Amino acid sequence: MVKLLSILAIGLGCFTLASFDEEESTADSKLTVLFDNIRNKDGKIYVFIYNYENQYPDNPYRNFEINKQVVSDYGTLKFTIPESLCKGNYAVSVLDDENMNEDLDSFFGMPTEGYGFSNNVSPFLSVPDYKDLLFDLSTNKKTINLTLQYFI
Predict the structure, then answer these.
(1) What is the pTM assigned to this prediction?
(2) Which residues, 6+ apart, have CB-to-CB distance to 103 below 8 Å?
(3) Which domains are delineated in the chain?
C-alpha cells in the first residue's frame, strides 16, 4: 500500500510539473509596435493582428484604432496592444486612414493613404503573403518596428 501511494505521489508530481511547464509556454505576452514615417496627424491608424492564415487579410484576430493626435512631430508613435496575446506566431497590418472613411483609398489602383506590414514587407501589386509577415511572440514582451509606406 505504501509503495502504491509512493508511485501515485510521484506520478502526480510529474503531472503537476508538466502542467506548470505547459502554462509557462502558453503564458500571455505584451506586444508593442513602434511606428515611424507617419506623414501627418489627420485621421486614425488601424492596427490588425492575425494569428492564423485564414484570417488574413479580411478577418483579423484583433483590431485596434489609434487617434493620430498622439503622433509625435517626428512622425513616430509607440503603441502597446492593450490586450495580452498568447505566445505564438502573429502577423500585423496597418492602415493610416487619413480621411477616417475606414478604407484604404486609392487612385487608379494605387493607394493614396499609408499602410504597413510586420517585418516591413513591401507589397508589389497585391497584399503580401501571410508567411512573410509572421513574427514569433515567444517572450513576455516584444517590440516590433513598423514603417508606414505611402505610394502617392
Answers:
(1) 0.81
(2) 97
(3) 28-147 (2.60.40)
